[in-house]
Amino acid sequence: MATYRSVFDAAELRAQLNDAGINTKFMASIWKYVLQNPGCELDEIPDLPSSAYRLLRTKFKPFTSTVHSVFHSTDGVTIKLLIKLQNGAFVEAVIMTYDTRLGKYGGKPRLGGPRSTLCISSQVGCKMGCKFCATGTMGFKNNLTSGEIVEQLVHASLLTNIRNVVFMGMGEPLNNYTALVEAIRVMTGSPFQLSPKRITVSTVGIIHAINKLHSDLPGLSLAVSLHAPVQEIRCQIMPSARAFPLEKLMTALKTYQKNSQQKIFIEYIMLDGMNDEQQHAHQLGKLLETFQVVVNLIPFNPIGSSSQFRTSSDQKVSDFQKILRGTYNIRTTVRKQMGQDISGACGQLVVNLPDKRTRENTSLLTDIEDLRI
Question: Where does the record place the Radical SAM core domain (predicted)?
Fold first, then answer.
């Protein structure tokens, strides 16, 4: 069976148009038409050169992935999409809707209204093996193409207007670097026009890729899954920390911040008795006190019933936050858990595929990252 490429696979589409002597300016109009007419055939796109139709028909599809299932959380603000890829594999994407009018900013009510953030997957499975993350239990299956990454945004955009994108779904985004960069360039161009500062890439700390990221994608937001203030604890819960030692990671982040002049988001999952004591808060404060960061404390979502970790108490989370804020003046937030009943929360994205007996009853393990771990 012929394998078609996604029309949103920018490098492939650009190369094929160039080879056929067709102006690549038509790419944006092709994407715009597919976005506005998701059930269309490529032959229906108006005002293309005749040779373009032949090319599109034989090499490309409007979508190479399909939405297999949509799960709505009882919280009313979280939707999880189970997306089937052309190769038969599945990934998950999560839409989270926030109301910016809730809460205060500088003592005054916030402006704005509801806004949707899409949590996107970059790989099927993940090779990082973080012990608190359900995706890590799948092992690594394959990288997504840039088109498959962009298609998650297209599928989600048909349900709601997406304002922010976070690469915190399945996979380590910087391990699929070329496709990631290409997909984000599509998202920030016409017709999507997302602002780079509204796109966040989360990484466990792939140092060589962090060193390239700012020059390839200026203006992007970077989130780092730190999860421990010292190398020894980090190695216990994140096997990848051996390859990317904390000291070298912090040096890379210092350079990134100097070049980008942007805040870095620090993700820190709270594991009872492992990394959530007051001494750990002081160690983290000292580690980060020379940086401009926002620390996001993430309550742990147990992965099934056999997890080796326990969730930190609310009191421990509160004490930890007070130390970072009060002693070190580090802006610190606590992640609001969303979509836990549909396995859409942090660290819980994993695909347990339906077998023939359960057919459409897709049973999903506890959750993905609602901002990737």
Answer: 112-341
